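Researcher: Here's a chain I'd like modeled. Treat it as a single chain, no partners, no ligands.
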Amino acid sequence: MKKIAFIILFVFSQLFAQDITWTEITSTYNLPDGVKLFSGERTSPNLKIFYYDVNLNNPDIAIRPYITNSIKIVPAFTKAVGAYGAINGGFFATGTASSYSSVVYPNAVKSQNVTSITRDGKLYPVTRSFFGQKTDGTLSVDWIYHFGGDVDDVYKFDQPLQYVSNDPNPKPAPQKVDGNMYEDLLIGIGGAPTLIKNSKVLITYDEEIMWGSGVGNTNRDPRTAVGYTNNNHVIMIVANGRLAQSEGVSLPELADIMLGLGCVEAMNLDGGGSSQLAAGDKYVSLPSERPVPTILAIVHKDSLGLPKTATFEKIIDTGDEAAIENGTGWFETANAGFYGETKSLLHSLGTGENYYEIKPNLPGKAKYEVYGWWVASSNRCTDTPHIIKHSNGIDTVHVDQSQNGSAWTLIGSYEFTGDSTESVIISDFGTQGNYIVVDAIRFVAYDKIETSIHHQSHYIVREFKLNQNYPNPFNPTTNISFTLDKLTNVNLSVFNSLGQKIETILDETIRAGFHNLVWNGKTLSSGIYFYRLSANGFNEIKAMNLIK
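Model: Modeled as a single isolated chain. Structure tokens:
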């Protein structure tokens, strides 16, 4: 009877709570375009609450979690990582850096949501909430489970394990077959419980075994939450609580507030004494002064540490016209692991009279990374000269070809203009070892290439060509590149050794020029696979070797 009376009283108080009055306070702090900060107040019951509105449509703005081994209050943490602003993150052991909630960086799981919880001496497997962003920018709140320590071990489920309050019976642990791998996961942070799912309030407090945790459901407390809108804005909110001027909010209230701010999905983070919102190194919310090990921060997009996107790539192999042999005495290696269709070439050490010159004929002025590929062996030269003739002069880099074979190794970054005098020379003038190796050279640019009309017309692609994948063998990713001489529909598919199609990588209309993509064979077993390019009547098949 008392429980029923409490629920009625709680619902009654919720219905008669005043609306929150919001005021934008962005100009008070040093925040970039795309980030707005709001302060909210009400007097019955008393509440002081703040939220960031982060517009991820701004190409310079991103969000990401951070975790530290040295716990910090949120303003100090924000300053330490150079963020614009931040809120506290997920749950942890108070006074320590031991996180109980997931923290996912690009390509790395730094902390995991708990996979089980002890209640009344029993071990309860559990799926808990996770706010994540994929590499294409897609946001979501999901119930996840870690099956290991890698990003590929994060699985999400359509619903949490179906516990009820004070459930006496632990459920079986989740199985991969019941969920889906969280593909293309970029960043994320864990918490609990989910507040909003598919634009509806859905508080999975019991299902995520929050009972017995010390985190209340219907009581008013300091709270922290994160959610997102359907127009790609992230809402990061903190409510002051346990104060005369601000009682805090319950989880149902918090969900309603997030829904009112346009969130289509949202999740609770650690609250109570951990709830903090900072702008730079300044508190915005009333400080609790509790140091925390994790934050969710607003940063410049460069802070994500994403791999650069190449604007140009060109690979020249020993069998290409642009690879010019000079001198005599060159012979093919018997070793596997060479690039493309032509074997690596060897030459004994000499005086520099024998060399290969690679003439890249690049499309225009830019900074290019230069990579080398060779077949390594114990008898290879350990100081093979690579002479780079670039727009600012000549550099010689000595490369140890006894190591790092059958993979692209960075030689250096140089400015080229596309002049005919530019080249890379691999010379026999080494001093250590028996043989120098010549195989493939790769040029990659990441910036806009300055081209003249002359160079543009000179660099027109006049053929369809499918290149050999690299690296090959590979595990589990490899690059597949091709060139097109005109706009056309392209189909790129992978087949097993029985000729059965296992994946269509690409099936769309593509512009003329050079194209490169990365294929991931993580779900396949070791073996020989074939990839086929079909475009405008052109068909070519090449083999690749997946080794795990």
